[in-house]
Amino acid sequence: MGRTILHVDMDAFYAAIEQRDRIQLRGKPVIVGADPKNGRGRGIVSTCSYEARRFGVHSAQPISKAWRLCPQGIYVRPDMAKYARVSERIMSLLMEFSDLVEQVSIDEAFLDVTGSRELYGSGEEIARKIKSRIYGDQRLTASVGVAGNKFVAKVASDLEKPDGLVIVPPGKEKEFLSPLPMTRLWGVGAKTATYFTKMGIERIGQLADTDRAKLIRTLGKGGEDLWRLSQGIDDRTVSPEEGYKSIGHETTFEKDTADPDVLHDTLLELTEKVAQRLRSHQVRARTIAVKFREADFTTYTRRTTLQVPADTAERIFPVAQRLMRPLVRKGKLVRLIGIYGSNLVEDQTGQLPLFGPERSKDRDLAAAMDDITGRFGDSAITRASLVPPASKRGKT
Ligand SMILES: [Mg+2]
């Protein structure tokens, strides 16, 4: 039996939280986003309630347009700190069901529950338990897709929103995708869809029936990727350390090593790079994770959450060391180590209402180091950035 992957996606997340917390908003068109300024506002809609969607309002729409479509709507400024707290709680509930939870945005995550089936039942049973756990704890609904891979699970979670549950049994992936429009494919936006329409391809099933070699000739590697998705094939793993808003570096040793000094120095070097990238993105990490792979590919991820988010090696390195130390076993060869910062918060230096100002000597020193590295470049940074592209983030 193959993998069981869940995609859990909260319904109208910000708007649902506001409706939960303010009884007078329930059943009303609630639009969370920029100030509409009587139709002259220039920002966008972050999320809106299902009641507002009936007026044609949707996320990422200009707030001025939302105002025209739905002047009777209740316009609410986002409270990101509150949404982040709810998000954290939900992610920790998901971790009760599997160690393999990859958060892909503030309100959605993939879970690989293959190893949890024995304990918690089938994918469907786990999905039901998760939905009721979230509702019981937070009075919020989630939609869940259950399938053998990430792509199909993600498509499934979106089909019966809100409060949806869609299960795609193993072997039925292609059949499930076939009638759906091309825009459901990852990476196909309106433009690409128009291109396929000209080729006579409007549904995923039509792409699946297209000659693979011809697609590769016309579209290259991207064509092959789309063709594989159209067949319901997606081998990507659920990787907790590569999820939403994480910044990390890892390195594979040229030669497997058990030398504690090499491990120490490499961890320090990686930590400095991560800290520097956090600062250049003007964010701080609340969660620090260490990835540790032994020569036989046994892989451990250890993480911890800090009281005060950090963006300096001086603060992150001792934490990373504490996480790595129990994993280092005498004589055991190590193939790879990595460090990740996630649960990122915006760094508004000097005005951190949640945590108080924390301008300290180590930050000043770090800023000076950044200046030097900035001027001379850092050719040593070869590992990929792990901030996912916008296309991976999906809808609310
Ligand atoms: Mg959502």
Strand content: 15-25%
CATH class membership of the largest domain: Alpha Beta
> What is the N-to-C order of secondary-structure elements (H for helix, E for strand)?
EHEEHHEHEEHHEHEHHHHHEHEEHEH
Radius of gyration: 23 Å
What percent of residues adopt helix (DSSP H or I)?
25-40%
Straight-line distance between termini? 31 Å
Bound small-molecule species: magnesium ion
Q: Could you tell me the mean pLDDT?
A: 84
Name the shape in a single word. globular
Tally of helical runs: 15
Number of strands: 12
CATH fold annotation of the largest domain: Dna Ligase, domain 1
Name of the CATH architecture of the largest domain: 2-Layer Sandwich
Indicate how many domains the architecture comprises: 4
Strand order of the largest sheet: 5-6-1-7-8
Question: What can be said about this structure in brief?
Answer:
The protein has 396 residues and is α+β, with helices and mostly antiparallel strands. It is built from 15 helices and twelve strands.
